[in-house]
TrEMBL record, chain A:
PANTHER family tied to this protein: MITOCHONDRIAL RIBOSOMAL PROTEIN L24 (PTHR12903)
Cellular component terms (Gene Ontology): ribonucleoprotein complex; ribosome
Species in which this protein is naturally found: Ranatra chinensis
Keywords tagged on the record: Ribonucleoprotein, Ribosomal protein
Pfam families in alphabetical order: KOW (PF00467), ribosomal_L24 (PF17136)
Ranges where the KOW domain occurs: 113-140
Gene3D superfamilies per UniProt: 1.20.58.2050, 2.30.30.30
Superkingdom of the source species: Eukaryota
Family matches, as InterPro entries: GINS_Psf3_sf, KOW, Rib_uL2_dom2, Ribosomal_uL24, Ribosomal_uL24_C, Ribosomal_uL24_CS, Ribosomal_uL24_KOW, Translation_prot_SH3-like_sf
Similarity comment: family membership: Belongs to the universal ribosomal protein uL24 family.
Protein name: Large ribosomal subunit protein uL24m
Automatic annotation (TrEMBL), chain B:
Subcellular location: Mitochondrion
Similarity field: Belongs to the universal ribosomal protein uL29 family.
Keywords: Mitochondrion, Ribonucleoprotein, Ribosomal protein
Main location: mitochondrion
GO cellular component, one term: ribonucleoprotein complex
The name this protein goes by in its record: Large ribosomal subunit protein uL29m
Gene3D superfamilies on file: 6.10.330.20
Leader sequence segment: none
Record organism: Ranatra chinensis
Cross-referenced InterPro entries: MRP-L47_sf, Ribosomal_uL29_mit
TrEMBL record, chain C:
Gene Ontology CC entries for this record: mitochondrion; ribonucleoprotein complex; ribosome
SUPFAM superfamilies: Ribosomal proteins S24e, L23 and L15e (SSF54189)
Assembly: Component of the mitochondrial ribosome large subunit (39S) which comprises a 16S rRNA and about 50 distinct proteins.
InterPro entries: Nucleotide-bd_a/b_plait_sf, Ribosomal_uL23-like, Ribosomal_uL23/eL15/eS24_sf
Record PANTHER family: LARGE RIBOSOMAL SUBUNIT PROTEIN UL23M (PTHR12059:SF5), RIBOSOMAL PROTEIN L23-RELATED (PTHR12059)
Name the record gives this protein: Large ribosomal subunit protein uL23m
Subcellular location per the Swiss-Prot or TrEMBL entry: Mitochondrion
Mitochondrion recorded as keyword: yes
First-listed, main subcellular location of the protein, grouped into a coarse class: mitochondrion
Family: Belongs to the universal ribosomal protein uL23 family.
Membrane is among the record's keywords: no
Record key words, sorted: Mitochondrion, Ribonucleoprotein, Ribosomal protein
Amino acid sequence: MSLVKFRSRYFSLDDILSSQERVPCLFNTNVSFLGVGELTKKYANLPESYIKRMMDQAEWKTPRGFPQYLRREIVRKNKYFGLNRPWTGAFQMENARGRYHPKVFVEPIKDWTIFKGDRVEILVGDDKGKQGIVSRLIQERNWVFVEGLNCKLKVMGKTKTFPGTVFRAEQPLLVTTEVALVDPSDLQSTKIEWRYNEEGEKVRVSARTGRIIPVPQQADETYDYKSKATYRESTKDTNEKELTKITFSPKIKTFEMDIMDSMGIKEERIPCKTYWY
Amino acid sequence: MQFFDEKDNWERDEVRVGRAWRIPELRIKSNDDLHKLWFVLLKERNMLMTMEHEYKQKFEPFPSPERLDKVNESMVNLEEVVRERNRAYFELETGETGERPGRLTPNALGMNYWYKASEHVVPPHANGTWWRQKHLWYDRKECAQFLTYYREKLFLAKRKQRIRDRNHVLGLLRRFPDMDMEALKEQYPTVDIERVKRWKKATGHFVPK
Amino acid sequence: MSTRWYPIYQKGNPQLRVFLPNFWMKIVRPQVKQPANMVKFITSVQMTDYDIKNYLEKIYKVPVANVRSEIVEGELKRSKLGYIIKDDDYRAAYITLKKGETFKFPDICEEKQKKDESDFKKAQEQAKVSYEAFTSRNKKRPGVPGWFSF
């Protein structure tokens, strides 16, 4: 702990810093590597704080809300995004202490064009020229998985006496160069453009035929529901009727005064004068 | 005791629930409703904490831990709505927000920070203890050296980041020569891409068209 | 004023009230065997015994006869990299229920453990049985695939 001399008194540096709320950030946190993609977050349907909590794997954090503690934490910093979803245990294993991964270069994309449920043509590998449906996306790596295509055989549960079970695992394809969207009007692959239609909505347009390629319904799918209409309410959910009911009426009262009135608490005493500094 | 979850959820691996309350949804609710909802959320949070503790003790995974985050988010949003209403009242009646006052002041090391004022019974001129304890001033002479070093540290960190970004962009240009340059510029605003593009490091091993 | 600011009290002031308390509280299984009317809680450190009593009686409608509580210091641990980390402090509260009331901590995880175990065992046994059947059938003609017979 470093000490700073002050006339006749000594303070520790931490004593002085602990009183302050906003310490200027010493290091730029804008890491070159991308964070979690928007589409991933949408699919997860989880609070952002939860995803962050799971990714950070905080070993230790100083208690928040107490003046004697600085904001300090021991968390995972450089995250590697592989095949696993950021909030899963497998992701944590992949990013465990002592695990190192080669640096990944991800091509920046302005507008994401291929979504879950789209029909795409594969442009590389053994399945070159075949068409399939996109089953999964990993936006952090610009990856798509095509259902039943571009597969690798994998063996699981092999022991000395048991040869294990063999299954086909779909391998990722780069969304920029390794797949192309299929125009549903003539089932040929095409490049696409984002344009605005007459209603002012952003739509995908085939560059070759000029037809609109609608975004499939499956794109709205999340971990919890296939579509918003088919969501099944759990017992603890507030139903929509209750949720949209307007019970607010403006009053010239604070929250506390209003609650006291409705609870029948009467308070006539006036507080003494205090000073804020 | 209402500290435990429903019995059906005890042996489940996953408990599906909806999302948190959002601010616009809470704004249309009366103060009484918000007050009731707060206690519902408080009880839910206690229940989840109890269950989490028990599962942890028994070395079992706690089903759907995101429920805790959802409840916390709802509580933060609810409090925000209540503060918003109180702020409106105080601004109408007194012309002030009624929030805890604060100001930007230098601390003993000469670094600016947000000083949060607190409530006192005596006025500041009569409060010697406060004057002695709070160091909202600094000696420019003594802190000058420290501040120079501190700013240098900030500058070096920034420069390091800039160089790192530039090198990353070089790697990207080498690997993806046909990349969308606008997207690249958007993501790395500190890098002068037009200049960097011509560097030897940015061209990969391919035959030019 | 922000709801989290607790104003200072002077004689003659209005009674201080908290409308949106953010104290937390959880029941835990006591490590030492306790009488049937005793419940162990872990609460936020700022709570007093009166707070705990009021909290349980008003919010949970639990009849409380007595509260004893103490602040327990969080455990100090050494991490693998050498630095020392400390768990948060907490307040352990022992509550005596009123006469006639009893509390038993439910077995939450036991049913789950039983279910998990049985499922896993069943799948394992089934895989073993089917593989043995396959190998015994093909004992006299090794290398022939399973579908090559009637």
